[in-house]
Amino acid sequence: MSVIKKVQSYLDQYDMGLKIIEFEESTRTCELAAKALGVEVGQIAKTIVFQADGQPVLVVASGDKKIKTGKLKRLFGANKVKMADPETVERVTGYPVGGVCPVALPDKLPILLDETMHRFPVVYAAAGTPNSALPMTMEQLQRITGGQWADLV
């Protein structure tokens, strides 16, 4: 089963009518995705894997914001927080950097959703490939990820 079909199958379980958009061109970066979709960079919901004392944590945030690792340290009571390398990202999510989807993960991970995304009625996350997008509301994002809202910027 293709990655897109796997993610779509996962989404269909929620019966919310969520549909993946695929592009010919790359949507690997927030800027490329925003251009392909004709939206603001902030509407791109980037999914980043961090390691808090070596444990993977998924963060979903607006594409125009930078995550403050100090806030992650406090939230997790961690001594060290760093972005995961590309190999770790693919191992823990099953997706390549530039296409990391916040759902249909191989294992349950802590997921944090940055509050700055509430500025938009709809955000667009990658759907498992570097040329896909998944439009959703904040309520849908929280429901399908099981993530917790937090101030991360």
Describe the structure.
The chain is of the alpha/beta class. It has a single domain (3-150), classed as YbaK protein (Alpha-Beta Complex). Helix content is 27%, strand content 24%. Strands 1, 2, 3, 4, 5, 6, 7 and 8 form an 8-stranded mixed β-sheet that branches. The longest helix is centred in the N-terminal third of the chain and has 10 residues, at 3-12. The N and C termini lie far apart (37 Å).
Short description:
Helices cover 27% and strands 24% of the residues.
* Beta strand count: 8
CATH class: Alpha Beta
- Residue fraction in strands: 15-25%
Number of domains as seen in the coordinates: 1
Distance between the termini: 37 Å
- Would you give the CATH topology? YbaK protein
Tally of alpha and pi helices: 5
Q: pLDDT below 50 for ≥5 consecutive residues: which ranges?
A: none
Principal-axis shape equals globular
Describe the oligomeric state of these chains in a short phrase.
single chain
The secondary-structure element order is: HEHEEHEHEEEHE
Architecture, CATH level 2? Alpha-Beta Complex
- Taking all Cα atoms into account, the compactness measure Rg is 14 Å
CATH superfamily: YbaK/aminoacyl-tRNA synthetase-associated domain
Structural class: alpha/beta
The percent range for helix content is: 25-40%
* Largest sheet composition: 8 strands, mixed
Overall pLDDT, averaged?
Answer: 98
